[in-house]
Amino acid sequence: MKHAKFFMGVWILIGMAFQLRAQEQSMTLAQCIEIAVKHNHDIIQSQLQKDIYAREVLNATSRFLPSVNASLGYNHSVKGPSSKLFIDPRTGIPVPEQPYEIKSWNSSAGVTAQQMLFDASAVFGWSRVHALKKSAEAYSIATDQTVIFTVKERYYELLKKMQLVRVQEENLKSSEESYKKAQVLYEIGKVPKSDVLRAKVQLENARLALIQAQNDLEIANANLNHAMGREVEQKIIPVEESAMDTLEIPYETALEKALNQHPLLKKSKADLRASRAEIYMAAGQFLPSVYAYGGYAWRHEEFNQIKHFLDTDYNWYLGVELSVPVFQGFSRAAEVSKARLQHQINKEILEKTKQNIALEVKQAWANLRLAKQQIAVTADAEQAAEEDLRLNKEKYALGSGTMLELITAQVAYTQAKTNHIQAIYDYQIAKAQLEKAIGE
Questions:
Q1: Residues 110-127: pLDDT tens digits?
Q2: Under CATH, which architecture does the 2-39+121-287+330-438 domain have?
């Protein structure tokens, strides 16, 4: 019985281990981006908005096509006797106007068609919705790029936090070693008790720093899941890149690229074209519209005579209609004025968008340059701090150094290593930020 319980417990532990492992997922940056493109809510909304404007273009195009209606009908009516009386002039007796039922049958069939020949509002209305479709497409691309940048940023943040947890684990291990060494040296009377107390404080601070780093790692994991459109509890194990990608581009080239291809700039230009078309569309209400129409109809009491649809009992017509708007209050003038004002607003938006993009490129390019310089500086600082820590450990072991010096060296080394890791991933984030600012 005891053996059965033991093996049952082992199987449960194995099952729990497999379940926890299944919840963890090792993912590359490309895989995270692929999931985000499919599941991020902002991307899905922008794509649906783009699809809506595609339908609007189809709807506007339909106004240029003929409208055709076909009809087929059968009618049977019965008119009852009339209660209204009149004096029969022959007999002088009041009699009903209609003394009996009147039954009638009527069959009909026909085709009518109408074709727009000229309507300025329809022409410029199509131009407007086509420009709005281009605007929605550009906005969809901008949304994709924003989400991809967010995924990159949070992926690198997750990698950074994962590395910082390792740094704090190393720091905790080193603090434990220092504490144990201080205890041993205190017991043999080589160091004062204050060294043990200092080492103990440093050990507790290292434990707190590790807890904070683990908490930051958990938050970074949730942030990446959120950007990907997934449940925040799912654990991601980011794949560490073997080599750091670099980006070398002159500022002038970056700015030129951004002003040529940034999707938000394309959106603003499309919105400007749409507002210009809206002016013409509003002004088109003052112009006449021309339509052609025609129809063919057939009527007979008996439906089975429809076989003579083209031979007898038919009626057909053709015509052209010119409609001239004379006076509709001041609504048309107000529409034109409103459209012109909106056009001015869109001009200002376009100029502001250019300025915003230029500022974003400048900031991203400067951040990338700074991050590159910081990598080299922090690498040298880490190397120097590591050597200083090694020397202070040797000095303390030989009794020529103090615990305060050792703790100071340990803190400096941990900070230097943290700064170097931050500089590496700050560079990757700055590179992604510049790519987004350029519109790539």
A1: 899 898 888 888 888 899
A2: Up-down Bundle (1.20)
